[in-house]
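Per your request, structure below.
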């Protein structure tokens, strides 16, 4: 897959808030995440994971959501804009959920993010808008649960990320591994 996409928006929050305000640019830091974001760091920063084991590697440094999900949710009667669901990068034109583990996203002039897995939707979605959690979950034809709340990644190479930047997708060597929860 060599399909390119674009950055529709970027968001950051220094506090552990559910939604993140959009900004003009974010700076990605290799091995850490989004500069100035509450989830930036080499070790886990998500509060539920810190309680379990604060010494684990942070595989959730960057949260990405495809803008097509926002389109789908808005068409279903929700009001969701970039950053509302806690993502750092809102993409368009890339089937994020279909990418295999370890896919690399080359963003803008120099940033590289490696996809580590799926975001697990949580109750905070319903706190934001009633019924939103169920709206980002569905079942495929075989009855398997599909989680549509975006993907998580780690930063491999520093770089600024701006709205409108091109995202180039590089798949890992085969065999590909499907995304799992991280």
């Amino acid at each position: 897959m060599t399909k390119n996409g674009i950055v529709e928006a970027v968001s950051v929050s220094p506090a552990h808030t559910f939604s993140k305000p959009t900004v003009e640019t974010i700076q990605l830091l290799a091995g850490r995440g989004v500069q100035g974001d509450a989830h930036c760091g080499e070790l886990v920063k998500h509060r539920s994971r810190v309680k379990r084991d604060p010494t684990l590697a942070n595989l959730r440094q960057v949260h990405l959501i495809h803008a097509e999900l926002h389109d789908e949710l808005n068409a279903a009667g929700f009001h969701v804009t970039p950053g509302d669901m806690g993502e750092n990068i809102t993409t368009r034109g890339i089937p994020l959920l279909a990418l295999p583990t370890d896919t690399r996203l080359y963003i803008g002039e120099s940033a590289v993010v490696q996809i580590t897995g799926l975001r697990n939707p949580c109750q905070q979605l319903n706190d934001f808008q009633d019924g939103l959690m169920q709206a980002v979950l569905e079942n495929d034809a075989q009855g398997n649960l599909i989680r549509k709340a975006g993907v998580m990644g780690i930063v491999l190479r520093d770089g600024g990320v701006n709205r409108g930047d091109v995202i180039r997708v590089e798949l890992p060597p085969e065999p590909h591994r499907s995304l799992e929860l991280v």
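Residues 74 and 80 are 6 Å apart (CA to CA).

Regards,
D.
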